[in-house]
Design a protein that fits this description.
Elements: H1 2-18, H2 23-89
Length: 91
């Protein structure tokens, strides 16, 4: 009976020794996770800002191209009118 009691006490002692408080490790892990997620959110926001900036640049380029194309069309029309007048005048 003494052997059984001794084995039981030893087993319980080992069991209690194995039950360590992992709270500090868990806190570090949680902090690392929060920092990683914050960095990912920051990078995502920066990428979105870069994409918006590129989209705005593209829109301005497109608007500039449209104005230039309109100006070219007016110039071409004026040249056509001048050519038509020259043709009518026999030049």
């Amino acid at each position: 009976m003494k052997k059984i009691a001794l084995v039981a006490v030893a087993t319980l002692g080992l069991g209690l020794a194995a039950c360590q408080d992992n709270a500090p490790d868990n806190n570090v892990s949680t902090e690392n996770t929060i920092e990683t997620e914050a960095a990912a959110d920051t990078n995502s926001a920066l990428n979105a800002t870069d994409n918006l900036s590129a989209a705005a640049d593209n829109a301005l380029d497109a608007a500039g191209n449209s104005v230039s194309n309109g100006a070219n069309a007016v110039s071409d029309a004026a040249a056509d009118v001048a050519n038509g007048q020259d043709n009518v005048a026999g030049k």
